[in-house]
Specification:
Strand order of the largest sheet: 2-1-6-7-8
Number of helices: 7
Radius of gyration: 18 Å
Number of strands: 8
Number of domains: 2
Structural class: alpha/beta
CATH topology of the largest domain: Rossmann fold
């Protein structure tokens, strides 16, 4: 057990999470999907530990106008939209209002994807083991939206992996995905940032740099793989 001391930073946290995911190392059917921005440094280190590709999975919650903290749905990478029919019905949200909010959030999501990917398309996760990574889970609302959206893209297995989480939130995800890894679940939890010595904000530039660094590393992998033998397939 890692214990409940603070992580030095997101990089160290990623090392710890990666160690918990060793069963997924060196496999061709695994991809790390980080929730930007804070999940990207964690995801980068996890990807390096596992020898897996790294990408971002962007999610934008669709807030009810005037009550933006209440989500009536979410949109995500690859054009996915997930709606909360219960909220839409209870508040009798007009379809035009929903489409207007969706369009506004879609523009922001597209802008961020353009910044992060530089025109590259989102990865095809059909039949893959997709490991969703963030720097922690408090209520888990953003991660939950990501899970719901990712399910529509057809991965064979979804894993949620974070360095720290509120105990109840971690338990809830166990019933929503194939596997959940929460390195530490402190009680009381307080907040995600309470479990990092350095919880400084991750910039858009850092997200781009980490994605680029991982792509460059993977370009060298065929040479290394030819010396070490082929990767394992799915178990």
């Amino acid at each position: 057990m890692y214990g409940e001391r603070q992580f030095e930073n997101r990089d160290e946290a990623g090392r710890v999470v990666g160690d918990r995911l060793r069963a997924y190392a060196d496999r061709d059917d695994v991809i790390i999907l980080a929730l930007p921005r804070g999940g990207t440094p964690v995801g980068y280190r996890v990807a390096r530990v596992l020898g897996a590709p790294l990408d971002v999975f962007l999610v934008r919650k669709l807030g009810v106008p005037g009550h933006e903290e209440l989500a009536m749905g979410a949109i995500a990478s690859s054009g996915v939209r997930v709606l909360n029919d219960e909220v839409l019905s209870y508040l009798s949200v007009d379809r035009k209002v929903l489409e207007g909010v969706t369009e506004r959030e879609r523009r922001e999501l597209d802008r961020r994807e353009g910044e992060y990917r530089g025109g590259r398309p989102p990865p095809d996760v059909r039949g893959m083991t997709a490991i969703l990574v963030d720097d922690g889970l408090a209520t888990g609302s953003t991660m939950r939206a990501a899970v719901q959206a990712l399910k529509q893209l057809g991965p064979s297995r979804i894993v949620v992996a974070v360095p720290t989480a509120a105990p109840q939130t971690c338990e809830e995800f166990a019933g929503e995905v194939d596997e959940v890894v929460c390195a530490i679940t402190p009680e009381p939890f307080y907040a995600v940032g309470a479990w990092y010595k350095d919880f400084s904000q991750t910039s858009d530039d850092e997200v781009r740099e980490l994605l680029g660094a991982r792509r460059a590393e993977l370009e060298q992998e065929p040479i290394l793989r030819s010396e070490a033998g082929p990767k394992r397939g799915a178990s």
